[in-house]
Amino acid sequence: MLRLLAIVIPVATLAIWLLISTLSKFYAEQAIARDAGHKALHWGEYMSERVPELEQLIATGIPSPEQKQIIRQIRTLGDVFRFKLFDANGRLVLVSDENSISNPVGVSAEHDPETMTAVRTRKSVIAVRDGAETNGWPDLYAEAYVPLLDDLGRIAGIIEVYVDVTSTETYFEESFDKFGVIVSFASALLFLLPAVGFAMQRRTAHRSLEEVEYLSRYDPLTGLANRAEFTRRAGALHADGKLSSLLFIDADKFKTINDTHGHAVGDAFLAQLGRILTSQTEACDIVARFGGDEFVVAFCGLRTEMLEPRVRAILKQCAQPLLADGVSITGSVSIGVAIASEGNSLQDTIAQADAALYFSKSEGRNQFAIYGDSMGEQLRRRVELETLVRNAAENETFTLDYQPLVAGDDFHPIGYEALLRLKREDGTFVPPVEFIPLAEDMGLIDKIGRWVIYTATRAISLQAGELKIAVNLSAVQFRRGDLPEIVADALARSGLPANRLELEITESLLLGDDPFVLFQIDTLRDMGVGIAMDDFGTGYSSLGYLWRYGFDRIKIDRSFVAGLLDNPERSLEILDSVVMLGKKLGMKVTAEGVETEEQSKLLTKLGCDVLQGYMFGRPAPLPDVPGSRETPETVSPPLSREA
Ligand code: C2E
Ligand code: CA
Ligand code: CA
Description:
Blueprint: H1 2-50, H2 54-60, H3 65-76, E1 80-87, E2 92-96, E3 101-102, H4 113-121, E4 125-130, E5 140-149, E6 155-164, H5 166-215, H6 227-239, E7 243-251, H7 254-261, H8 263-279, E8 286-291, E9 294-300, H9 304-318, E10 321-324, E11 327-330, E12 333-339, H10 346-362, E13 368-370, H11 373-395, E14 399-407, E15 413-423, E16 429-430, H12 432-441, H13 445-461, E17 468-472, H14 483-494, E18 501-506, H15 507-510, H16 515-527, E19 530-536, H17 543-549, E20 553-556, H18 558-566, H19 568-584, E21 588-591, H20 597-606, E22 610-611
Parallel strand pairs: 12-13, 15-17, 17-18, 18-19, 19-20, 20-21, 21-22
Antiparallel strand pairs: 1-2, 1-6, 2-3, 4-5, 5-6, 7-9, 7-12, 8-9, 10-11, 14-15, 14-22, 15-16
Helix pairs in contact: 1-5, 7-8, 10-11, 13-14, 14-16, 18-19
The structure holds ligand C2E and calcium ion (2 copies).
């Protein structure tokens, strides 16, 4: 570009200079003619005024001594170097030269067209002539034919004055030359500035083109290939028969990381995952980010027996605490694996890995699945289930079963736990452990959970007596921060006192130790709502949590209760310590899954406040107890409440 400018600018300058000098020559000639004309006219008029008895002179052609003297005087003044006198008919009567005044009477001026024009029009005629060829004459001179009019306005004669305009010409030419040079340089500069600007713009454009080109192929966050680039390169690998297997990788609960720690941390976490994937691949493998928290790896020639160890290594590394934007994040990924084969296109292989990922996710987190034929059937079932959940959430066709809660000492009923039910078309029920995680993944648990809160509080408020209701919560329901508000609204609408509602949350929710969650729990407790820790003993039970969150109740997981039959001594020990612990921390204790009298007796002896299990009643619709209160007018749960 600059090389081009180095040629273009001098050429353009020269062209401008040529143009300007041509133009200036033209204008100089015009200006000279005008100047010469003025001078000649001036002298012509001066002569007609100063030369006495001019008519006489014209008539005779012979100047008197007095006239001669004035003519000589005039000739020595100014730039006039010659003049002629013509009579009214255009005949030349007198020629004055520097050295002599001649009298050419009889010389016809018929051929002097300017004289005739001046006679005819009675107006001055001016001509600029080149005198370089004539010896002793100036290089440039002007001839002015000035008509002499008598008192009546008739033509008396014509004076032709010759004026030397060489100096004027020199002056004009020099000026125009200077002007031309200045203008040429100025325009060169003027040209140069936009040209440089243009060049710079071109350069920037070129650079952004490169950037666009980069962006069109790579993911800016991780620096990995994007989907298009992956498809191109993996396609080539596949065509060469070098594609051995393909991984579809998805970060588990990425939304939670993003929501809890912000996007900067989320982005840094993804970049870390990208680094791990790159570190686990060879140069000829392709690692790509497909968008969001999805990554794809294409292995070239990785031996099948090496595939599983490699996948496990990736899972392991991704489950280590990672430093993301200064925050230590412990996440995990799920991986779908597809083995490439000649019969399958690249798109087929990607689709299989995607299906395997989907399958792996439905089986839990931090896992991998290798695509297999049985997967198709399982995936079909999952898609069916998703449809079922989506429809139930939309049409509010979930139902609630209520399982009795009884007092630990005399087994008198004290309330119910509300348990969500989803009916298939064939009338059978989908277990909550299957559809609840799915609803969480689908982002529907908020809406469904809200419906449970409104429905359960309303239902229990319609029952006779002061029965309590326990409602299960998903961690996701704390994400928006409006849970206390929803609960307060449900209580207000149902008229249920806050102390008759207990919310059950699982330990996994508290793992994050999130002040946002803590605050909502505090608010709920301040309202008088009870908070229970569900499934105690199954998760990462920590005394710290129990203490920090100040639960009202611990619900001992039914696996410990079941253990009373298989391993009585050990289970008794554990149950005993949990009940003791609860008492020390001021918490009540519920034992779940009580199925036999033997269990119930032992639990009563241990001092459990509340018992729950098939022995006292299976989850079922609420009984239509006679004397149930009528539906109060104010109670109409806004089921479709959207925030
Ligand atoms: P959970 O909160 O521990 O609920 C108790 C589960 O134990 C229920 O299973 C109940 O049917 C079962 N159960 C009760 N007594 C016995 C017994 O004596 N023996 C045996 N073997 N099982 C007994 P269900 O209804 O399948 O619910 C499973 C889980 O689904 C619940 O566990 C709870 O975590 C979740 N869930 C249920 N409803 C909701 C809901 O409305 N929201 C949320 N977020 N989770 C829910
Ligand atoms: Ca529960
Ligand atoms: Ca439980």
